[in-house]
Amino acid sequence: MPLPLEGIRVLDLTNVMAGPYCTMVLGDLGAEVIKLESLDGDSTRNFEPKVNDESYCFAVLNRNKKSISVDMKAAEGKAIVMMLAAQADIMIENFRPGVVKKLGVGYEDVKKVNPGIIYASMSGFGQTGPYGKKGGFDIIAQGMSGIMMMTGHPGGRPAKVGIAMNDIACGVTTLYGILGALIGKLRHGQGQYLETSLLEAGLAWSIWEFGAWFGGGEKPTATGTRHRRSAPYQAFRSKDGYVTVGASGDKLWRAFVEQVVNRPEWLQDPRFEKNPLRVKNVEALQELIESVLVTQPTAHWVEKLDAAGVPGGPVYTYDQTLSDPQVQHRRMVYDIDHPKIGAMKTLGLPVKSSGELTEIRKPAPLHGQHTEEVLRAVGYSEAQVRSLLAEGVVKSTGVPA
């Protein structure tokens, strides 16, 4: 059975993180993704670490894609983009707002040659509004979406989420927008334009905080690892590290107290009788729980939590995460061969399915690896391809696809 997006062509004008994440997943779903890069290439090709002069980070993010290198500022380069756009089902860009229109490859331009195109734009703040012309990065969006002020420990400096959260949120948001538009086109026959931003995509994930602000005027602040509505629900110090505990419900709380820490007297303490009271008295609760948990290592408590049916686990460093038997069993570390890096690891597929849904089919491309192949496929003759290469309008690695 073919993958769900097999036969769908995506023209990808994005770079760095948010856009490439979106197009990587489209490629995982079976789409033919043509990554159109400048003559200098996606800027993340320069990211360290490098193996055999190829960025490992770029390689992890850009699997299941073809690379074509084009000077879009040249008239012939723009013509190539439009030729590709005319034959694409989906087109995605994440330039600063206004750039694609200036280059002559914006939605209105593409719509003239391909009325059914699904065209997606990603930006820092959106295509309209008082910040509509500003560029933006993940950290700017984390700061402006309020996320940095609610991350970290109470009284500390604002803290960035450890991953590029707003970038990934924007990639995922664009992805479901594109898939929704594609379903709409299949049902109703029309393409459309859609856009989102790092700011909006990150803000859209702040569900509980939004409800608390408009429902009770609560301004979310940093709470460390604690939950704003549940307790105990956080990471606690153990003898050799930290252990997470999620025992906020009354049944789980009783199991935790009686079977894990063996402190039945806590059930009689009026400060901890119900979850809202435990949240209100979380400082005292943490002090009591940690006074017990620091007496044994994390592994001891995880075993007891599992035996009692109370959700809990170790707090890993990233290397420990990648070597965990559950992560290994679920194939989240996947082996693949790259044309220059050689044997390498890439992140596995997070969705498992009963049928054909996603697949890691090929490694990330070299810069311009598929330039000649793609040009010929969309109608350029051999002589035209040679001329474009000689004039420096396009670049090719010369490596067979």
UniProtKB/TrEMBL annotation:
It comes from the Bacteria. Gene3D superfamilies: Crotonobetainyl-coa:carnitine coa-transferase, domain 1, formyl-coa transferase, domain 3. Keywords: Transferase. GO terms for molecular function: CoA-transferase activity. Transmembrane segments: none annotated. PANTHER family: SUCCINATE--HYDROXYMETHYLGLUTARATE COA-TRANSFERASE. This is CoA transferase. It comes from Ramlibacter montanisoli. The lineage of its organism: Bacteria, Pseudomonadati, Pseudomonadota, Betaproteobacteria, Burkholderiales.
